[in-house]
Give the backbone structure.
Amino acid sequence: MKPLVLIPGFMCDDRLFEPQIRALSELSAITVAIPKEKIIHDMAAEILAQTSGQFALGGLSMGGIIALEILRQAPDRITHLALMDTTPLADAPANYDIRTRQIADVHAGRLGTIMRDELKPAYLVESPRKKGILDTCMDMARSLGTDIFEAQSLALRDRPDLQSALARAPAKTLILYGARDRLCTPERHHLMHRLAPHARLVKIADAGHMPTLERPEETTRALQDWLA
């Protein structure tokens, strides 16, 4: 079976990919990597150290950023690449103070408040699934806790521009995004497609930043086609 490494987004765990893991486990031996380092470079290096040989790689949001850094460090080891609702760009300068303040607030005991009031409202479109997905997001964040929040926030805040990595994207590259993603906008994905024009570009209608949970059937089909 093909080894597949999936990297979830900020303060998420394997539950972000639960519908896809159920379906793709017939095609691949799946590992979900939860990044804990404070630098994107180190997150990528640790995943590479924990994985042997060649493998398929998929990441959503922060996970996609780490996937690009893995591609930059070891392009010959990546057979398939899936970039979902992510960006190759460095963090906006305006986010520096916001992320720094959020870290302080979380250490002061306000993890739930920050996740609920500042981060998660922009993630999803209105749908019958929204409340259940938000509840799952809160559970994932509580499970990961304060130290992971700080590490992942610092890694995102200080990340480099990774546009150049896309020149090494493998032939089997998928760029997938929710059509109504407000965090990693469709324009970011069209940019990545221009940098890797051989990639397959897939838009998931009626989804925001988490199409894996918002539109699981469509997202899973796209990933099955990508791996086949």
